Amino acid sequence: SHSATPFTAFGPLYQTDAQKETAARKLESHRALWYTIVECDTPNGEGGLMLKVGLVGIGFMGRGHLEQYIRLMGEGAPVELVALCDVDPKKFETGAAQGGNLGSLGMGDFDLSRFRVYHDFDDMVAGEQLDYVDLALPTFLHCYYACRAMEAGLHVLCEKPMALNPEQCQMMIDAAERTGKRLMIAQCLRFWPAYEALKELSG
């Protein structure tokens, strides 16, 4: 369900069949672009491509990411969340929600037993065959773990803000250029249907 996402207030923008079809085509376009970016060649059960991801950080925002991965996998999207990593063992003792500042985001009760759990980043990277890591960590850790992931041969999706200062941001960019890996900051608003529709209307 998208009930917790702010763009539901703009629902009428996608009420017609034509608008829904346009949104679906854009979604496929985004998927195709991401496959091109990461050059993923992991086959799924239908002979297509399947992105394997490790989620790092299971706090409030990390649980929001977890919620969306579960939804996407349930909808048959070509992404598989295979591992969770957090230094705090208590995060995995229960699927109970943790409070945050974005309404009901990540507030569901999740069965974490379906995922492989790690408390050490290096152990997860060594133990899994991942296409990318999703970093939902406190901002001061973004640069360190993004660079480590890219040096380990993984693409990176990193929560915003990118880092604490321009120097750390540049270090992340340099690591991406040096390793040939892709670094994406999760500036998600530009992909929300309402913003996509407004861009179309203004273009």
Gyration radius, in Å: 17 Å
Query: How many helices does DSSP assign?
Result: 6
What's the pLDDT, averaged over the residues? 79
Q: Which percent band covers the strand fraction? A: 5-15%
Shape: globular
Euclidean distance between termini CA atoms: 30 Å
Number of strands: 6
How is the main sheet built? 6 strands, parallel
Main sheet: strand order: 3-2-1-4-5-6
As residue ranges, the low-confidence spans are 1-14, 41-47, 100-106
Structural class: alpha/beta
Q: Which sequence of SSEs, written as H and E, runs from N to C?
A: HEHEEHEHEHEH
Question: In which range does the helix fraction lie?
Answer: 25-40%
Question: Can you describe what's shown?
Answer:
The protein is of the alpha/beta class and 203 residues long. It has six helices and six strands, in the order H-E-H-E-E-H-E-H-E-H-E-H. The protein has helices spanning 17-38, 60-74, 121-127, 142-151, 166-179, 193-202; strands spanning 51-56, 79-85, 116-118, 132-135, 155-158, 183-185. Strands 3-2-1-4-5-6 form a six-stranded parallel beta sheet, with helices on both faces. Helix 4 (142-151) runs parallel beside helix 5 (166-179). It starts with 16 loop residues before the first helix and ends with a helix. The relative contact order is 0.15.
